[in-house]
Amino acid sequence: MIDRLAIEGYRSIRSLVVDLAPLTVVTGRNGTGKSSLYRALRLLAAAGQARAVGELATDGGLDAVRWAGPERISRAVREGAPTEGLVRSGPVALRLGFGAADGLGYAIDLGLPVPSDSRFDRDPDIKQEHVFAGLQPRPASMLVERRGAVVHVRGDDGRRELTRGMAPWSSLLDEHAGAADAPEIAGVRRTMRGWRFHDAFRTDAGAPARRSQVGTRSPRLDDDGANLGAVLQTSIEAGFEREIRRAVADAFDGSELEIVGVDGRMAPALRQPGILRLLGADELSDGTLQFLLLLAALTSVERPSLIVLNEPERSLHSALLAPLAALIRRAAEQTQVLVVTHHAGLADALDGARIELEKEHGQTVVAGREGLLDQPAWGWPTR
């Protein structure tokens, strides 16, 4: 489980550290930085798959996503002094990390590349990576330390060099995940690759989830929801039938879910009270299909270490918020869940740990905090 999340220098987030619970709800008004937190967590997950540099390049490079305000919010700025003309004294850095009270944590520091003639000038360099034990990257808890091209590991026999040939675009989570003398690298990579993100499922007329698809056992939902029928059928056969049918009945006034299969292809359908025939996936409303997609994601056979839902209330009628909240709460009993939402009703119904974001002098902060000293402890290793 992620117990602590740290972000620095990303979009509207100058510096943010938050503690997470088994069920955490991130709320706030539009424009306060909820999407920045969500996208930063997705970028951190991409680092676990050695895709962070590519993801940033796709977004336009580090300059396009880094914090654009002053390095620190001085008293003068707080009192209304203009920020134009302020000069940075430190290096440009985008830092992401997480800690676990009883497990492994990871931190990555990305910066601008050394000027060269390369045409890959949008690719940031990985300046540092750290694998550590506990909630934050302290020197005493450091297990693997990468600074530039050099990687050191700490074992029973002390600190020793693993390699000094890391390319600035390569992650140690990819290059050295199989190192027999550094199993912590494989452990943290396995944790990060188990995170699942669900954001803006397609429910339009051409959505893959509306079409019958070849059905094979599917322990997890595809990003586009195409294997919706197969995921639900897999979960039903794996013993989650009662939970799935109860959720459908509660959400749709006693309706029953059926998985229609023809010639090896599968698609969900609903049998509704008073309707003499099945309603196929192509006939379902956007909200109904959205709920079924969320149902599949939250009851899949594969139980990831973390599920992140970004605005799951999209397209849902208010009557579906209570059944959705109940479904999320049940999922959080087995899997850590983080929900990003601006819907106060859903946030209240979820009754999880609440992180409310707001904007202060252009930066995203947690509402009610007095300042950086009023947030969980975290110390970024210096370059």
UniProtKB/TrEMBL annotation:
The keyword Magnesium does not apply. Keywords: DNA damage, SOS response. Pfam families: AAA_21. InterPro entries: ATPase_AAA_core, P-loop_NTPase, RecF-like. It comes from the Bacteria. Transmembrane segments: none annotated. Residues 23-347 form the ATPase AAA-type core domain. This is AAA family ATPase. It comes from Agrococcus citreus. The lineage of its organism: Bacteria, Bacillati, Actinomycetota, Actinomycetes, Micrococcales.
